[in-house]
Design a protein that fits this description.
Layout lengths: L6 H7 L1 H14 L6 H13 L4 E5 L2 H11 L7 E5 L5 H8 L3 E5 L10 H4 L7 E4 L11 H11 L2 E5 L7 E2 L2 E2 L6 E5 L13 E5 L2 H10 L4 E3 L2 E2 L10 H11 L2 H18 L14 E2 L5 E4 L3 H10 L29 H9 E4 L7 H12 L3
Parallel strand pairs: 2-3, 2-4, 4-5, 5-8
Antiparallel strand pairs: 1-9, 6-7, 6-12, 8-9, 10-11, 13-14
Helix pairs in contact: 2-9, 3-9, 4-5, 4-8, 10-13
Bound molecules: pyridoxal-5'-phosphate.
């Protein structure tokens, strides 16, 4: 059996260090915010080449609080990718704004800058690109459009820990960058966790207030905030895993390189990496015309695969009220029908990668 991803293996690799970090928090008697959270925020900001990081409860909340910090709310529109995990859209809905989808560039599968301006209306307040699969979106043209139209830019970097755009880490290219540390992400907690990074001190301060009941000083509430704090236990675990993140990314890159070389004659559509991108391969997504048959074949051979994502947000019941016809976003619909995520992760053995490649070479 070759699993799609083995989360337990990541823990086992760092078990003594993670266990020690957890014990340290338990012994400290400090279970909300405090020194462990502050240390992680400092270390995560430095890693992301950003001035500030603020830990929150999960990736969805990072997006919601980023939008709230920018005063995006009812009556506003936010431009989002048509093909993304639904959380990107849900964050916009949660603040009372409307997600307005644009289709991806067919090569990069990320938000296509050439399609953004047609979607801008007088209500548009922000652009929300996603670095899908760990591939950076084309930020410079997106930031340029935002500047010309007076829009804010929020990045959904839930899949892009450590990725670089034009040589610089994802973390502060735009107004505010949102992270998830869901266990399966490249930097994953042992439960839910998230963060924002930014170079804007006022925005960081706003999110820090909003995540903690709108309060900096206990029982003094400056704004109607929420409870969305990152847990010190998770912060302590993330600090340990952060020391391995670059090494783990290198291992993902070795897997991706093996796939790229081994699968080029198979007829599968392979990921495209532009010159300006240094992806971190959160997912290795190929496109297969006969996806269901291929997936079934791999399952029979004991190889775990997943589909990211089988139903695009505009075709979910949750978004029926937007009234977007399935074919109004044909690329998102097509991708949902043919993408397949191959096993990927820092603990995936290269001998297993070779077995997967052999299976795919012998398909058909
Ligand atoms: C995981 C993910 C999120 C949400 O993160 P959670 O921590 O699960 O709330 C948002 N956007 C994208 C693209 C994701 O992959």
């Amino acid at each position: 059996m070759i699993p799609f991803l083995d989360l337990g293996a990541a823990y086992r690799e760092l078990k003594p260090e993670i266990d020690a970090a957890v014990s340290r928090v338990l012994d400290s008697g400090w279970y909300i915010l405090g020194p462990e959270v502050e240390a992680f925020e400092t270390e995560w900001a430095a890693y992301c080449e950003a001035d500030h990081a603020v830990g929150v409860a999960n990736g969805l909340d990072a997006l919601v609080l980023a939008l709230r910090a920018l005063d995006v709310g009812p009556g506003d529109e936010v431009i989002v990718p048509s093909n993304t995990y639904i959380a990107t859209w849900l964050a916009v809905s949660e603040v009372g704004a409307t997600p307005v989808p644009v289709e991806p560039n067919p090569a990069t599968l990320n938000m296509d800058p050439a399609r953004i301006e047609a979607a801008i209306t007088p209500r548009t307040r922000a652009l929300l690109p996603v670095h899908l699969y760990g591939q950076p979106a084309d930020l410079d043209p997106i930031l340029d459009i935002a500047r010309r139209h007076g829009l804010r830019v929020v990045e959904d970097a839930a899949q892009a820990h450590g990725a670089r755009y034009n040589g610089r880490r994802i973390g502060a290219h735009s107004d505010i960058v949102c992270w998830s540390f869901y266990p399966g992400k490249n930097l994953g907690a042992l439960g839910d966790a998230g963060a924002i990074t930014t170079n804007d001190a006022a925005l960081a301060e706003r999110v820090a207030l909003l995540r903690n009941y709108g309060s900096k000083q206990k029982y003094v509430n400056e704004t109607a905030g929420v409870n969305s704090r990152i847990d010190p236990l998770q912060a302590a675990v993330l600090r340990v895993k952060l020391t391995m993140l670059d090494a783990w990314t290198d291992r993902r890159r070795a897997v991706a390189a093996a796939y790229a070389e081994g699968l080029k004659e198979t007829g599968l559509i392979m990921p495209h990496v532009p010159d300006w991108a240094e992806p971190v391969w959160h997912l290795y997504v190929v496109r297969a015309p006969d996806r269901e048959a291929l997936q079934a074949r791999l399952t029979k051979a004991g190889i775990g695969t997943l589909i990211h994502y089988p139903i695009p947000p505009h075709m979910q019941t949750a978004y029926a009220a937007l009234g977007i016809a399935p074919d109004a976003l044909p690329l998102a619909r097509e991708l949902a029908g043919d993408v397949l995520s191959l096993p990927m992760g820092p603990q995936l053995k290269l001998e297993h990668v070779r077995q997967i490649i052999t299976q795919l070479q012998n398909a058909e």
